[in-house]
Design brief:
single chain, alpha/beta, Rossmann fold, nine-stranded mixed beta sheet, four-stranded antiparallel beta sheet, 23% strand, binds adenosine-5'-triphosphate, binds magnesium ion
Amino acid sequence: MLEVQDLRVYYKSILGDYKSVDGVSLSVNRGEIFGIAGESGCGKSTLVDGVLRLIRPPGYIKSGKVLFEGVDLLSLDESGLNKIRWSKISYIPQGSMNSLNPVLTIEEQATDTLIEHSNLTKNDAKKAIEEKLRVVGLPREVLRSYPHELSGGMRQRVIIAIAIALNPSLVVADEPITALDVVVQKSLLSLLKELRDKYGVTLIFVSHDMAAHAQLVDKLAIMYAGKVVEIASTQDIFYNPLHPYTKLLIASIPRLEKKEIKGIPGIAPSPLNWPKGCRFHTRCPWAMEVCSTIEPEMLKVNGGRMVACHLYQNGGEKY
Ligand SMILES: Nc1ncnc2c1ncn2[C@@H]1O[C@H](COP(=O)(O)OP(=O)(O)OP(=O)(O)O)[C@@H](O)[C@H]1O
Ligand SMILES: [Mg+2]
């Protein structure tokens, strides 16, 4: 359904370009829940903004292709892109539950959004949003509410209802459960799963929360320093991580029986100046000489697993 090829998204600055997404390739199959994980600042939001061509200056798309059902979104004109946005692909931006318009009722802002992106009349737009409020488990009275009258969990459900109102085939959700309590998180994860299981929506789920990925996604891409370093089924990522960064990320998940808090030594590098060679070599306990000079390519190993690491050079073929 979606194929991203060597995408680069940079932000201009007086110090030079911030290479926040720097050569990402991945593909998402229809009906899949595809997760994107990695620590803060690794480029997750920039990646999905780039895929949906929502990058604003000083950001720009340096190069790459984004094929959605075979059409390159990066070469479409604005009107071609608008036909696809919302009706085929919809987007839940990071923090969007806090950016509902405070002076409009949910009905006003939801119908405005739908009318803007479709040929629906006001009445049909209202019906569409009413139906989706039911899907996300909210009463229709919510239509008359202002955002401040709703809890965080309810606002996030409203955002999801608006996102699915035009029956898109792909929903991209950036940190949709972050900053909510665990009970609300759990119910939102069930809702997102239901969107796929019951309504056939393909979902890209962006989160730094590995526990959320474990519960929801089928396949997981791990990002580090503007690159995807590993892609595998969620099962494989958790039980048999290959990339050293993934191994340390999984080992950092707090466990009740172990009192110590583990982390990854060192700090993430700056997109202004990525380390030469493998970007993780400065923090990697397994680093070899080659890692500081040659950037590892994405390799296909172990029957379909993908990892970009010199440790697997001889057992893998170039992807
Ligand atoms: N508008 C901008 N101008 C300049 N740099 C930016 C801009 N937006 C993001 N960046 C830089 O791009 C890098 C990636 O940011 P991004 O928001 O994509 O990370 P993220 O993985 O989504 O992080 P988080 O988990 O905190 O949401 C960061 O170093 C950030 O400083
Ligand atoms: Mg983000």
